[in-house]
Amino acid sequence: MTNCHGLKLEAPDGKMRETDCANTKGMFRIIQSIPSHKAEPFKQWLAQVGYERVQEIENPELAQERMKELFEQKGYSKDWIDKRLRGMAIRQNLTDEWRERGIENEQDFSILTAEISKATFGMTPVEYKSMKGLSKKNENLRDHMTDLELIFTMLGEKVTTEISKKEKPDTFYDAGSKVLRYEAFFI
What we know:
mainly alpha; two-stranded antiparallel ribbon; 2 strands; single chain; 8 helices; 2 domains
């Protein structure tokens, strides 16, 4: 029961009742502890997924191949998938550059990203998600971008990375001014 926590949730009668709840990790642990043979297929699936992740740790290219397969299953074209994966690498380079400059706070990353987005598309990521009709918190805006939008996003982040590497800002505010320099470059 250490994996379950009582949360007050609305019951069918409209009253708030304490209900045992667990997060995804907790649910997996509960399922692993069920002695029933009916839980065995799910336990086998968990073991398979765990095994695959260990293989990906040993060979990271397997993780990239799995990601490509997932995007293909969702109906994305191979050309779009290549752009999306390239965009992920460019974004990683940018965030690595920002970390080297001492930026660690998630909010600071969000602010700088919003500035790049405003320069590229004239709106923040939150405004962009709204324009695209994405309302769920876990929906990734980039997964809903067209090829051209992905290319412009990569361009904005790549130029910002290069400016930061060249000018070496040493504070969040300096990094912000480098992003603004990108805006001037792009406009």
